[in-house]
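Appendix B. Chain record.
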Amino acid sequence: MTTRNVEQEFDTLKADFGKLSTDLSNLTAALRDLTAEGAQDYMAKLRAATEHANGNVHAAAAALGARGREGLDAAAEHVRERPLASILICFGLGLVIGKLMDR
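Structure tokens predicted for this chain:
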């Protein structure tokens, strides 16, 4: 092999390594962008799921509040219709709870 061929091969190798280095840098940048995009997509999905769950919780709380108000209204109506029976029931419950607490 002549010195010229060796120099030519060495220059070709240097050019190939330079190109490889550039390609590796481009690949690293592309992977970084894809990772950032994936993280942003995941965060967007997570936010959407959280908002959906938050809406469900608020709807359930509103429904529970409405049912509680209905129950209180029904109890108040029962007391208005039968005041003596309501007083006797409360008295009996008080006795039972008092006996249970003594133990």
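Further analysis of this model is presented in Appendix C.
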